[in-house]
Task: inverse folding
């Protein structure tokens, strides 16, 4: 019967700069006696992609690395240790905590940055694995994100190749015959989250295989870059406090331009 299978690939091992990641994964699959099949999707944690691509960099201060990787601060909140938790936009267009800069499971005095071009990384991996296996497979590169309005984190796709990125149901009809106008499913994010159930965060299992979905494509496709929401359609471009402060400042400027005394001129800058 048709169904979905998801399993982790054991034995990939420690990855160092310059490694051929596709070859490491192919060898691990071979040692495990596993064979890739047409339609399989390889889901790969961005950490090992970054390590292979030499994105491990010296950084005594992780905060400096976050600043360097960020193009825009979305929200910042002070922490009890005197630092700040920053939600930022990366140069890829991703909005995430700390710009994806990772200081866990790396040598002291170093941090790991996201891949420069995650979609390009996925294309390179797909080409290598398609070549070695002879199978029509797709690749998704993932990282961990927090989510607005929800506690907890989940893995999302940051790069993809030869995988259908979304399922666009607009123009179709629901079970009652009503037209669907807003139903677009982010398939690569759902696959990323499913794969994380078997990869985990600390088990040394950065690669998973997802089998049973009809999502693999002949062309490399637009990748995850096509999922990045532009500023013109982003209703939540700032954190709540930052949006309030920006609106308050705009009101003051408008009042000054009109020659009026600002309402609440001596009010505190933040909401009660």
Result:
């Amino acid at each position: 019967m048709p169904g979905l299978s998801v399993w982790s690939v054991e034995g990939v091992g420690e990855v160092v700069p310059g490694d051929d990641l596709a070859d490491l994964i192919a060898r691990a699959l071979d040692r495990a006696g596993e064979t890739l099949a047409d339609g399989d999707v390889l889901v790969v944690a961005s950490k090992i992609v970054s390590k292979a691509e030499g994105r491990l960099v010296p950084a005594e201060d992780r905060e400096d690395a976050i600043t360097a990787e960020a193009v825009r601060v979305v929200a910042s909140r002070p922490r009890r240790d005197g630092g700040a938790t920053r939600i930022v936009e990366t140069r890829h267009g991703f909005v995430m905590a700390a710009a994806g800069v990772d200081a866990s499971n790396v040598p002291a005095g170093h941090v790991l940055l996201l891949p420069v071009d995650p979609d390009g990384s996925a294309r390179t991996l797909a080409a290598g694995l398609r070549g070695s296996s002879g199978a029509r497979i797709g690749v998704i590169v993932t990282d961990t994100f927090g989510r607005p309005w929800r506690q907890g984190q989940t893995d999302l796709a940051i790069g993809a190749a030869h995988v259908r990125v979304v399922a666009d149901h607009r123009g179709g009809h629901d079970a009652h015959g009503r037209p669907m106008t807003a139903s677009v499913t982010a398939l690569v994010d759902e696959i990323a989250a499913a794969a994380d159930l078997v990869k985990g965060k600390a088990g040394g299992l950065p690669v998973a295989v997802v089998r049973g979905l009809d999502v693999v494509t002949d062309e490399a496709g637009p990748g995850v870059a096509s999922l990045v929401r532009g500023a013109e359609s982003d209703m939540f471009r700032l954190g709540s406090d930052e949006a309030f402060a920006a609106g308050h400042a705009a009101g003051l400027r408008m009042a000054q331009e009109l020659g009026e005394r600002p309402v609440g001129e001596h009010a505190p800058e933040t909401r009660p």
Q: What stands out?
A: The mean pLDDT is 89. The domain at 56-113 is CATH 3.90.1660.10 (CofE-like fold). The two ends are 59 Å apart (CA to CA).
